[in-house]
Structures are given as C-alpha cells and as structure tokens.
Amino acid sequence: MMRNISFGGGAWSTLWWIPRGIIFGLLAFFIFGPLFNLVLWTVAEKWYFPHSLPLQYGFSYWEKVFAPRGGAIESLTNSLIVAVLTVVVSLLLAIPTGYALARLKLPFRSLILLAFLIPQAFPNLTVYVNIARIFYEIGLNGTVPGVVLVHVSHGLVYAVWIATAAFSAVDPELEQAARNIGAAPMRAFFDVTLPLAAPGLMASAIFVFLESLDEFTGSYFVGAPDVNMLPLLLYTAGSGGNYQIASITALLLLVPSLIFMMVVERFLKADVLSKVGH
Amino acid sequence: MSGRFLGLLLVLPALAVIAFLFILPLVMSAVGAFQVEGAFGWGNFEKTFDLYTKDIIFSVVIIAISTALIGLLSIAIGGYLTLGEHPVAVAILRWLYRWPMFIPFIVVGQVLRTFLSKSGMMNNVAINLGLIAPIDATSFLDWRGIVIAFVWKQTPFVALLVAGAMASLNRDTIEAARNLGASRLRVLIEIVVPQVKMTLTVGLILSFVTMMSVLSVPLMINAQTPTMLTADIAFRVNSYGDYGVANALGLISLVLASSVAWIYLRASLKERA
Questions:
Q1: Which residues pair with B15 in a beta bridge?
Q2: Which of A265, B94, B223, B242 has a C-alpha 20 to 30 A away from that of A165?
Q3: What CATH number does residue B229 fall under?
Q4: What pTM was estimated for this model as a whole?
Q5: Which domain holds residue B167?
Q6: Where are the transmembrane segments (chain A) (predicted)?
Q7: Do A49 and B119 touch (CB under 8 A)?
Q8: Mind telling me how many Å the CA of B150 is from chain A's nearest CA?
Q9: Quick check: B209 and A123 CB within 8 A?
Q10: What share of chain B in percent tops pLDDT 70?
C-alpha cells in the first residue's frame, strides 16, 4: 500500500506530528486567536497597554449595551424584523421562480439563472449609493421596507439558486402521480412537491436570513441613521473607540453565523448541493 | 395557458427586483459618472485621477496580493484534504479551516482590529513567547491588515470549492503517480491543480469582486491614506455629496473587476479552441 512506501514504521509516523502540530497550531492560532480576543473584549472591564490580558473582568458593558438606551435592543429588533421580512419576500419570489426554472420549459433558462448572480458579480457599492438616491426621491430611504428591498436584491441569488436546486432534486414523477389520481396542479404542488423541497428551501431561508443580518453596506447607505441595525451599531461603537460595545455586538452577529456553519450540511444535502447552479 | 408563458410569469417578479434594484442603479451610476452639473463630460474622471490615482493602484495591488494568497492557501488546504495520508490530520484540518467562512466582514474588521493592533493579541503572544522584543511590536493595521482580513475571510470559501472539486476527481491517476514514486507536492501541482483550475478561477474571481465591494474592512482597519476605493466612494458621498466622482470611482472598480473576468474568459476560450 501507498502508506507503507512513504513511511517506514511507527516512529516515522509519530515524528510527522511535529510539523503537522506546528502548522495546525499556527492555523488554529490565526483562526481562533482573533475570536478569543473578541470574547475577551466583551468581558473586559479594564484593559490597556501593555497588559496582555484584561485587568478586570465583568459584565457591566453587557448591561450597558442591553440597557434601554444602549441601542442594542432597538438594533437587534430592527435587524431581526428586517431579516425575517427579507426571508419572507425572498422566498415568495424564489419559490415560483425556482419551480419554473426547475420544472417548466423556459426560454433563456441559463441566462435567467445567471441574472440573479449579477448583484454578486459586480462591485455593488455605487449601486447602493444610487439606490439610496432613488429611494430618497420616493420616500423609501431610511425606512424598513427600503432596507428589506435592498437586502432582497442581494439575497435573491441564494434564494433562487438553492430553491431551483431543491425543486430539481424532487422526483417529477411524484407530482405526476398525484396529478394522475386527480389532484389539481396547485394541490399537487402544495401537497407533494413543496413539502419534499422544504429542507432545501429551509437552507435557502437560512442563507438569506444570515445575509440580511450581516449586511453592512446597503444598510449603511439606505438605512442609517433612521433604521439602526446591529452592523451599524457595531460600526459606530467601533469607530468611537468603544471596543467592548463593538465586540459584544460583533459576538451577537457571530454566533448565528457559526451555528449555521455547523448545521448547514444537515439542510443542504448532497443531492441538492450537486444541482446548485445547474 | 402555455407552459412557457406560465414559466415566464412565475419568473418575472423576481427578475423585476433585480432589474429595478440592481441593474437600473448600476446604469444610473455608469451614466452619472459622465455627468458634470447636468452636462456630459470627463470632468469626474479628471478629478478622480487627480485625487485617487494612488488609491486605485493601492486597491489593485492589495486585492491582487490577497487573491494570490487566497489561491495558494486554498490549493494547500484542498491538496492536503485530498492527498493527506493520515485520516486524523485530515479530519483536524477539515474541522479547522472553515470557521471564518460565514463570519460577516464587519465582524472580521472588528475582530482583526483588536487582534492586529500594536497592543493586540498577536504582538502580545509573540512578546510573551520571546519571539520579538516589546519595543519591536508594530501595528499591522495598514495594508497588511486589509490583506490579512481578506485572506482570513475568503480562503475558507475558495478552499471549500477547490476541495470539493478535488474530491470529485478520478483517483486512479493520483494513485498511479503516487505508486510510481511521485511526491505528493508533485502530484498536487502536476495532476490535481490543472484539473481543478476552472473551479479555482471561478472562486478567485468571485472573491476578487467581493473584495472590490467591501466597505467595512477598509473603514475599520485602515482609515488613513492611501486606502481602498470603497472607502473613497463612501467618503465622496457622505462628506461632499459628490455623486459624480463617487460614480466615476464605481465605474473604475467595475472596469477592474470585469477586466479580470474578461482575462479569464479569453483564457478559457483559448484553451478550448
């Protein structure tokens, strides 16, 4: 076997853990070091140069952040409202689109699929700047619906692509069977196809939710300063030099992202994943 | 109602969102770049190159360095996951490398700002381990900070794509080369990487465009000059309400991003011809 050629015996393969350990250790330091540093900042009451660790630990900044005037409750509520609305609107748009792209004969199908990638494929900063101008004219700037619309345009690629893949992974014969025993097209869709595509749609909903929760640039131009959201709170606290509040906000944004990274494979099964973008 | 018509009807609302909320403002920004006080002209570009030539070069260099590093690291990670011979080591790496993938850029900016600063954790650890003297500690919150932030956040994404492509390769050639005595590095460079070139390039182009659009990282890590184009655009709009120059800067970053995509398209067409 291959391994016997490269390593003579047990001693060699034990020795191999030295370079491996050094590389993995460095990698772990650069990945987890910054995250650990962030957690330290959230509970640091006093921390200044040249001390490598905080001088005093405590939760007083958490109290400050979550106090009625701390801004976090308002930002968190706004962020959640916007994210939930973004998911609802995106799915309402993506479910019919995904179904059509997966099942119906469409002219220019691959072009349509590509069109949803456009917002990710162009540098989008000036786009947000100009949307803010349009929204200002029609009174949408600084409103929750305005921010939701911006987030929808950005998250639609995940919603549509994953929904299309989810519908493609459902066996069309099941829907046909329901039709054959007399179900109306709508009934067959809602009773058979939609429930079978649900795990994939759930994955696209989570993607869109996170995209919206984390989105900074669009919220910065369209939402601020009227619609305060977590990324904006993080930014203002950070630029004001208040690292504790910035770190607590960052942690609030970080936790859902990390949880999602760990569970994503449960929702996005290989059969759906292999059909994304096709 | 024919199936085609129904299909288009179902797709139309979602397409309308993209048309009105992305393509229309994109066209507006392209047109706006050439508008000076109501008339068409090159004024915005003259001003842009006067004020921001340094920043344009700075942005291109930073993003090029980051893209190259992301490419190298992704190949290394994907390569080890594919060719690594110790299952435990492979499992550790697979568990380790993905963490930053879904962390938002704004959080990356904050996290690395405290980690890389002069009194930050990186310098502290190096000092405590005796690797550097306290007096030699320098802040990394300049161009290096931006590169580190981009590489930190984008590598897992490209590595995931590359590792996926490598995993689906036919293993026979790899095993054959190994059995003939080719080193793993040689197998990686001469057999594996050429076969996943397409995926790697797509991942790197997507990363390139993402990095061209990120506003939070340059604002949080490197607020001094020279800085990235995105920070300049925000500054033009917020401080001067100067949409002309902001749009011109936007068009320049658009041209930069599309030229990268164009080089890639040309190369892949040549390959097929």
A1: none
A2: B94
A3: 1.10.3720.10
A4: 0.87
A5: 53-272
A6: 21-44, 80-102, 111-136, 148-167, 188-210, 243-264
A7: yes
A8: 13
A9: yes
A10: 97
CATH 1.10.3720.10 fits A64-273, yes or no: yes
Alpha-carbon dihedral sign for residues A117, A120, A126, A131: positive
Alpha-carbon gap, residue A219 to A149, rounded angstroms: 11
Chosen from A126, A220, A260 to mutate, greatest number of chain B CBs within 10 A? A126
Output b/e per residue, B100-114; b: 16+ Cβ within 10 A: bbbbbbbbbbbbbbb
Is there a contact between B29 and B251 (Cβ–Cβ < 8 Å)? Answer: yes
Q: For residue B107, give the nearest of A124, A130, A253 by CB distance.
A: A253
What residue ranges do the domains of chain A occupy?
A: 2-58, 64-273
Domain annotation covers residue B87 = yes
- Using 50, 70 and 90 to split pLDDT, how confident is the model at B90? very high
Burial class (CB in 10 A: 0-12, 13-18, 19+), A202: middle
pLDDT tens digits along B92-118: 999 899 888 888 899 999 999 889 888
**Mean pLDDT within B143-163:** 93
Which of A20, A104, A126 is facing B7, going by the closest CB pair?
A: A104
Torsion sign, CA atoms B221, B107, A23, B167:
negative
pLDDT digits (tens, 9 = 90+) for B159-179: 988 998 898 888 888 889 888
Domain presence at residue B256: yes
The answer to whether position B25 is within a domain reads no
Q: What is the chain A residue with the closest CA to B153?
A: A31
* Number of domains within chain B: 1
On chain A, the residues whose CB falls within 8 A of the CB of B119 are 48-50
> What is the nearest CA distance from B270 to chain A, expressed in angstroms?
23
